[in-house]
Specification:
With 180 residues, this protein is α+β, with helices and mostly antiparallel strands. The chain contains 9 helices and 8 strands. It has helices at residues 5-10, 15-23, 43-50, 58-64, 98-102, 120-129, 136-148, 155-165, 168-177; strands spanning 2-4, 28-31, 34-36, 55-56, 75-80, 91-96, 105-110, 113-118. Strand 7 and strand 8 (113-118) form a beta hairpin. Helix 4 (58-64) runs antiparallel to helix 6 (120-129). It is elongated.
Length: 180
């Protein structure tokens, strides 16, 4: 599990006790102020703990859902437009308006820890909207997997979400590439 320094102090650990646990390999330093109780931690958990309002999207969310086989770095997250810029070489931050940011957020347990991620319907819209910004192979792998699971998609929810995006090309592309 990943912990922030402030979380450890709230649990009653002093600075001395934290340093002692690090020296005894009971805790491992991930970054300044971030610790893990395992040497092999998942960086997605680090992002989820350090940036609790970040929502995983695009290739990162597709990987979490099993729609793509390779986990791409940098990890792609969405934040509100007015949030502060995250300076981390492993994170690609996408700023979104408050209305679009809140559309389709789900909280799931992924490999034993909680993350915010866009649901499958919202993710499909994001993938289609960002076709030109994505790697060709990744885009087609995601779309082909969406074709395979298209019957599981909630069409009403998808239509509700599309209204928020005000781009008629999204509907055409989804119908042509996924729902055909």
């Amino acid at each position: 599990m990943v912990y922030l320094y402030t979380d450890l102090t709230k649990k009653g650990f002093s600075d001395y006790q934290i340093k002692k646990m690090v020296n005894e390999n009971k805790l491992y330093v991930v970054k300044k102020g971030i610790y893990s109780d395992k040497l092999n931690y998942n960086y997605l958990e680090v992002i989820a703990v350090k940036h609790p309002n970040a929502v995983f999207t695009l290739e990162t969310a597709a990987y979490c859902y099993g729609l793509i086989s390779k986990n791409k770095i940098p990890y792609v997250i969405a934040t509100k437009q007015k949030d502060r810029k995250i300076k981390d070489e492993y994170i690609k931050q996408i700023f979104t308006t408050d209305k679009l940011y809140n559309t389709g957020i789900s909280k799931i347990t992924y490999q034993g820890f909680n993350i915010l991620i866009y649901d499958l319907e919202r993710l499909l819209i994001d993938v289609v909207r960002n076709k030109k910004n994505m790697d060709f192979e990744s885009y087609h792998e995601i779309i082909n997997n969406y074709k395979r699971i298209s019957k599981l998609l909630n069409k009403n929810k998808l239509n509700e979400y599309i209204i928020n995006f005000k781009d008629p090309k999204i509907v055409d592309r989804i119908k042509r590439e996924v729902l055909s």
